[in-house]
Amino acid sequence: AQIRYSIPEELTRGAFVGNIAKDLGTDVAKLAAANLQVLSDSDSQYFSVNVNTGVIMVSERIDREQLCGQNPRCFLHLKLAIENPVEFYRIEVEILDINDNPPEFPSDEVSLRIYELASLGARFPIQPAQDPDVGTNTLQTYHLSANDNFNLNVKARTDGGKFPELVLERALDREFRAFHYLVLTAEDGGSPPQSSKIRITIQVLDANDNHPVFDRPSYGARLVENSPLGTLVVKLNATDVDEGPNGDIRYSLSSHNSAALRQIFAIDEQTGEIRVQGNLDFEEATVYEIEVEAKDMGSPTMEEHCSVVVEITDVNDNAPEVILTSFSSTLSEDALPGTVVAVIHVRDRDSGEQGKVLCHVSPDLPFQLRKDYEHQYSLLTSTRLDREHVAYYNVTVSASDLGNPPLSRHTILPITLIDVNDNTPQFEQASYEVLVAENNPVGSVLVTVSAADPDSEQNSRLSYSILRAGGTDPGLDPTRYLSIHPTNGQVTAKFPFDYEQTTYLQFHVEVSDGGSPALRNRTLVHVFVVDQNDNAPRVHFPRAGEDSATQFRISPSIVPPALITKVVAIDADSGRNAWLSYHLVEATDLGLFSVALRSGEVRIMRALQETDASEHELLVVVRDAGEPPLSTAVTLVVLVEEKGPEALQGSEAQAADGGGLPTITLYLIVSLVLISTVSLVAMAALGIRCL
């Protein structure tokens, strides 16, 4: 026997469905004793039976849209088994739809561009709303907000859907109103009814022509799945009464078509022939409804729409494919993360789970896949690239379906990174210090600066040049003394260095690569000129010619160790090379006179005796401490004469102590006086100017 119940969906757990004991005319106690069992045809136990009362109750949430989709009637079947005797009863529970889903538009707003001289009665399709409910609870009607120009026409589709169209009832005048703002409301038949709205913005375009007209409002065709590419589906025909470009018609698929449909069908824009360009799979769709628009070539264009219903006949088929829509095998290393390297189209001719394809790449590579559409992926860079680290990649794109076992296909994309001048040349040292002995040979290599650039080819070709360093004496232009080889960085001297003129020189060496724009770096080179002992001591006092001697007079009664004179010498060298020592090399009587080693003071060491000569010739040698040492000799003649002892000794001592020094002192005093005078005059002038 079979018993049928009807209940609405979304009942709470424990809700009453029916009394099986009452409907079977059986005592409840008898059902309990007969070992009552309830068996369900589905995987889920939506119902349970209380054996003590015979009542069937709801045990799980029931969603009619999830169970039966758009089917107008929805049933759940139970089997009731009892023993002693064995009997089976079939219970059929009809799930009634309730209005638990409102109609939904694909978007909240749509924009239309309609020409000013569009013909009255012109139709403009609007994206329909979708309502998963059935019967009276599904989408029933559309309402258009009040306006002066448009009316609403609801077109019934072959699948039972309702296709809203705006119908132009009153001529547009762009000069009067350039934009129209309408609201389209979709409403179901539930109680209470539910609805949703979409805002329609209409831009009126200035034109003066007629829209194309199809010879039929809709077309039909029948194809077998896996029809060869290029198979003719249907040939459309539209006419336009205008002449010239305004009557020249171009056909195209409407924007209302899905991306998947656009991959399957293509239309010849001139002949109107719709042909197969992709795989037809009965498991994916049994019917395709193609929205086609015909546009003329006027300015602005006019258009008309029609529908083509294509029914697919099922045949058996299989397996995943990877198609490179766009691919560049070279990529600049400075490409930002997210840069598209390749566009990949994947498809699987199977249906259901076996027809679903997933793509992936190795997570160890700096690339990732982004799913653009249902069957299209883009290969993107996921991180920054560095050619100096890795210059070449083999990216394996794996496409696998969800079958059991899964089928897969692997495609290797070779990608070569193009070098970018993104690395500044780096010197081996931040600065260089060079010790150069003066009197160096011309052209000798003073130092070799070296830099490296990890870039390649032209970007790594380095060129060196000398720049004048900030703070260097303006008169010391380094390019005057030095030159650098532009490729190997060898710095050579153009002239010998003279320590007495230049002791220190600093300059910048700049390296630039061959990139565009070139990248540069600098290093500072310090050149220290080392003194050489190339200057002999020069005697400033006493002054005498090359072949003459200087005479000094002393009294016979001079008291030792009286100062006779002082030999003063200077050396243009520096350091140890300028350390001077004075030596008495020859004398009439070596024991009578002495010369101080460091000061050069000539003194008498004992009292004069009558036996001593009246004229003494002394040869004093001034020697520096260089290696080898250089020296200068001076000859002194000491005359012993009877004069006033004090006067003679004083005058000679004064001569010895002074020598050439008073002249230097006088120069210093005069310079100090002049500087002070100029400063006072300047300050007085400044004060007067301020007053």
UniProtKB/TrEMBL annotation:
Concerning PROSITE patterns, the annotation shows:
CADHERIN_1, CADHERIN_2
Q: Which gene encodes it?
A: Pcdhgc5_0
GO molecular function ontology, one term from the record: calcium ion binding
Using the record's annotation, list all stretches that form the Cadherin domain: 6-105, 106-214, 215-322, 323-427, 428-539, 546-664
Residue stretches in coiled coil: none
Q: Which terms does the UniProt entry file under GO BP?
A: homophilic cell adhesion via plasma membrane adhesion molecules
Which CDD domains does the UniProt entry name for this protein?
Cadherin_repeat (cd11304)
- Cite the entry's keywords alphabetically: Calcium, Cell adhesion, Cell membrane, Glycoprotein, Membrane, Repeat, Signal, Transmembrane, Transmembrane helix
Q: Which organism is it from?
A: Prunella fulvescens (Brown accentor)
- Protein's name in the database: Protocadherin gamma-C3
Q: How does it sit in the membrane?
A: Single-pass type I membrane protein
Q: Using the UniProt record, give the first listed, main subcellular location.
A: membrane
| An annotated GO cellular component | plasma membrane
Q: Taxonomically, which superkingdom?
A: Eukaryota
State the compartments where it is located.
Cell membrane
Transmembrane stretches in the record are 664-688
| Alphabetical list of SMART domains matching this protein | CA (SM00112)
Q: Which residues form the signal peptide?
A: none
